[in-house]
Design goal:
Structural class: alpha/beta
Number of strands: 6
Number of helices: 19
Length: 496
């Protein structure tokens, strides 16, 4: 009986993770697969490798992450942010070193997942998240411009028609994803009408064979490791940052929670598999993830199907896929760009009510990401600026009040707030050392000591009083503050 119950529980979990939404997941996966093709080819061109490297990567990343990842319905594949990091590696050492780097990237990501790197997401402020989303929306739109500017005039009405279908078709039915209807409809019109417009086939040659499992053709030596390690660590950091931020966005869109550490480990496994299959390192894609969710994808099946359909489309149905007009896919990506951007963040009401410091953090994140095409740099810049503003605010709420006892023999200073490196700079100057009374009591009941900078400041205050013959006593320390003060007090007074 217990065995039957165990298998029933396993089947229940599998059904919830894979089969809770099969029809919508299948259709959403097909839409995503079509949208992945030109993106993967473009990112291969950026990295300086054959288009099949990006296409194989997108297939293997999606399939493996569907099984190993922590966020259902999120799409992982080859991405622009990762491709930009690979450019000098491919140029100087060749594509085989790229495959080796992809494997090492995966190993690093697994280690980071095992030590709990996913929990670091709690330190990314909301304005940085908003800036990340807005910057990515802008980058998605800018990536479509080469397919629009300078093309034949027919492209423009095709894109407009695609957008109309995407936004109006859901009013008729949501059974079939609107983007899929737009892609098929425009492809049929262009083919039947013999309309000459740029197609997916113009982006590059599609592979006609399945990827083959094999080891990267590089020497297994310390020299090789020294070459690939710097790129691997950079790719691991950029990939996890983009993946975890995208996971958070999908969490919010679907009102569900995901295991961020499992996502880190899953991304690592996916990149290891991708390296052995002749693909480039990848990570989560916010654009394709949003397409998937908005098309009805909710479980791991949608991600798995996206990767599987991608492989089938480019290998078995390459001739059919090649004739799809780029205008159809551009319309889908413009829809993604518009729906991704957080328009409320720049509304007049938000600009009036949201603190200026938070708006500035959001703007800086957007500007740095768009200017550098580097999501990691933008998020880092925004997070650092947010930390500076936070430290300034916290530093200003530390208060020092004093009262003299009726006998005039003891003055009590009450400290309120969080004492750390930013809030203790002026602490030493908040006491009256010229008031030579017998005893000073520093009451820390409503304060908390966070670091040795605060301990050093309190040591300096006590040293100044004792140097003038005044007795000093500290009271009210909570357990954590007392422990830190007890271990480190007296070590810093000599420097003041």
């Amino acid at each position: 009986m217990s065995s039957d119950v165990g298998w029933a529980a396993v089947w229940g979990r599998f059904k919830a993770a894979w089969l809770a939404n099969p029809t919508a997941d299948l259709l959403a996966g097909l839409v995503v697969a079509l949208a992945l093709i030109p993106e993967a080819i473009s990112f291969s061109v950026i990295a300086g490798v054959d288009p099949k490297v990006g296409l194989y990567a997108s297939f293997s990343m999606a399939v493996i992450i569907a099984i190993a990842g922590g966020r259902p319905a999120m799409i992982s594949a080859a991405t622009a942010s990762m491709a930009l990091v690979m450019v000098p590696l491919v140029r100087e050492h060749g594509v085989e070193y790229l495959f080796a780097t992809t494997v090492v990237t995966g190993v690093v990501q697994i280690v980071l997942g095992l030590i709990g790197a996913g929990r670091l997401m709690r330190f990314v402020p909301r304005p940085v998240m908003v800036g990340f989303v807005n910057a990515l929306a802008i980058l998605i739109f800018l990536a479509q411009l080469p397919h629009i500017v300078g093309e034949t005039w027919v492209v423009y009405p095709m894109i407009a028609a695609g957008l109309m279908v995407i936004y109006l078709f859901p009013r008729l039915t949501r059974v079939v994803p609107a983007p899929l209807v737009a892609i098929i409809g425009i492809a049929v019109v262009a083919t039947v009408g013999h309309i000459e417009v740029p197609t997916v086939g113009d982006m590059g040659d599609l592979p006609d064979a399945l990827p083959v499992l094999g080891l990267p053709s590089v020497p297994f030596s310390w020299t090789t490791l020294r070459i690939v390690a710097p790129y691997a660590f950079t790719l691991a950091a950029v990939g996890l940052l983009e993946s975890l931020l995208t996971a958070q966005i999908v969490d919010d869109m679907t009102d569900t929670r995901s295991d961020k550490d499992a996502e880190c480990r899953g991304q690592g496994l996916a990149n290891i598999g991708t390296g052995f299959l002749g693909g480039m390192a990848g990570c989560a894609m916010i654009g394709q993830s949003i397409i998937n969710v908005k098309s009805g994808g909710r479980t791991r099946l949608s991600t798995f199907i996206a990767g599987l359909f991608l492989l089938i489309l480019v290998t078995a149905l390459g001739d059919v896929v090649s004739v799809i007009p780029m205008a159809a896919l551009v319309a889908v990506m413009i829809m993604v760009s518009i729906s991704t951007f957080d328009w409320a963040s720049i509304s007049p009401r938000a600009l009036r009510t949201v603190p200026r410091s938070e708006t500035l953090v959001m703007v800086v994140t957007v500007v740095v990401v768009v200017a550098t095409d580097n999501l990691a740099l933008g998020v880092l810049a925004g997070a650092l600026l947010g930390a500076v503003f936070f430290a300034r605010r916290v530093a200003q709420i530390v208060q020092v009040t004093d009262v003299l006892d009726p006998d005039g023999g003891i003055r009590v200073y009450a400290l309120t707030g969080d004492l750390f490196f930013a809030s203790t700079n002026e602490l030493v100057h908040s006491f009256d050392y010229a008031d030579l009374i017998p005893k000073v009591v520093i009451d820390l009941t409503d304060a908390h000591i966070w670091d040795t900078s605060a301990v050093a400041a309190l040591d300096a205050v006590a040293a100044k009083y004792r140097g003038r013959g005044v007795d000093v006593e500290m009271i009210g320390l909570n357990e954590a503050s007392s422990d830190l003060h007890g271990r480190t007090a007296g070590q810093f007074a000599a420097h003041h």
